[in-house]
Write a structure and sequence with these properties.
- It is elongated, with a radius of gyration of 21 Å.
- It is an alpha+beta fold.
- The longest helix has 17 residues.
- The chain is built from one helix and five strands, in the order H-E-E-E-E-E.
- The strands form two sheets. A three-stranded antiparallel sheet has the order 1-2-3, with no helix packed on it.
- About 25% of the residues lie in helices and about 35% in strands.
- It has a domain of about 50 residues.
Length: about 70
Amino acid sequence: MSRAVALAILCISGTSLAAQQRATGTIIASNMNAASVSILDVASGTTLATVATGNGPHEVAVSHSGKWAVVA
């Protein structure tokens, strides 16, 4: 492998590593069999809360501001 090709590969791989960012935010997941929704913190991977719902929740809609969520 030529020196120029090796240097190009090193530069490209370093750029992709530097561009990666840590995931942030919140996920709301419906638990159909448990009749609940779980609120998860993406960065830590922990469950922030589990909220009881009616039977068989299957859809979650979140407001643009992120302040409200509706479960159906």
